[in-house]
């Protein structure tokens, strides 16, 4: 994850995301650098429009809370479920009582 953070930091600073710069950022952060991971991240980000990806990610984040149910609705649903469970338990106990002639 720190490799992606380093790449995002370079992008934000307007620096080129290459192996040398990525290594410098990771070393400055005190991360033990894995050469293979550095090469993989640089290769994976080659030709990728990071600004576009960040824009899409922020749109998804903003839309998610709107779709979430209201807390009041969740509480009502929980109460309904609890009542259903209690009713099932009462029915089960009533059935057991009939077995013993009560």
TrEMBL record:
InterPro entries xrefs: P1/P2_N_sf, Ribosomal_P1/P2, Ribosomal_P1_arc
GO CC terms in record: ribonucleoprotein complex; ribosome
Cited CDD domains: Ribosomal_L12p
Transmembrane spans: none
GO molecular function: structural constituent of ribosome
Short name of any one Pfam family annotated for the protein: Ribosomal_60s
Stated role: Forms part of the ribosomal stalk, playing a central role in the interaction of the ribosome with GTP-bound translation factors.
Protein name per the record: Large ribosomal subunit protein P1
Lineage: Archaea, Nanobdellota, Candidatus Nanoarchaeia, Nanoarchaeales, Nanoarchaeaceae
């Amino acid at each position: 994850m720190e490799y992606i953070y380093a790449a995002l930091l370079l992008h934000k600073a307007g620096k080129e995301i290459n192996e040398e710069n990525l290594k410098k950022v990771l070393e400055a952060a005190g991360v033990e650098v894995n050469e293979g991971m550095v090469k993989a991240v640089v290769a994976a980000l080659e030709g990728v429009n990071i600004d576009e990806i960040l824009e899409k990610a922020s749109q998804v984040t903003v839309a998610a809370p709107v779709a979430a149910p209201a807390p009041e609705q969740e509480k009502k649903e929980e109460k309904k479920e609890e009542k259903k469970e209690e009713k099932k338990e009462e029915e089960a106990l009533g059935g057991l009582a009939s077995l013993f002639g009560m």
